[in-house]
Design brief:
By secondary structure, the protein is an alpha+beta fold. The protein has a domain of 50 residues. It contains one helix and three strands. A three-stranded antiparallel beta sheet has the order 1-2-3, with no helix packed on it. The longest helix has 16 residues. The chain is elongated.
């Protein structure tokens, strides 16, 4: 893990198209801004973890396919 010190209005660059700006420091909280292309998804860790858990649960569930009426008569017995 790379650990950097930054002051308000200073930035960190990730590659050439993602920047993280320090917006505000108040007590033990830091507000940051992320500037990234729209194709890059940016999430807080807890939101990312919830999305991954939901995706895992969906992948493990059995698919439910509705009955399709294709005009074919079926014998109910």
């Amino acid at each position: 893990m790379l650990i950097l010190s930054r002051k308000i209005n200073e930035k960190i660059m990730i590659g050439s198209d993602i920047s993280i700006s320090i917006i505000e420091i108040r007590g033990d909280q830091v507000r940051i801004g992320v500037d990234a292309p729209k194709t890059v998804k940016v999430f807080r860790q807890e939101v990312f973890d919830a999305i991954m858990a939901e995706n895992k649960a969906a992948a493990q569930s059995s698919p439910v396919f509705p009955e399709f009426d294709l005009g074919v008569k079926r014998d109910p017995f």
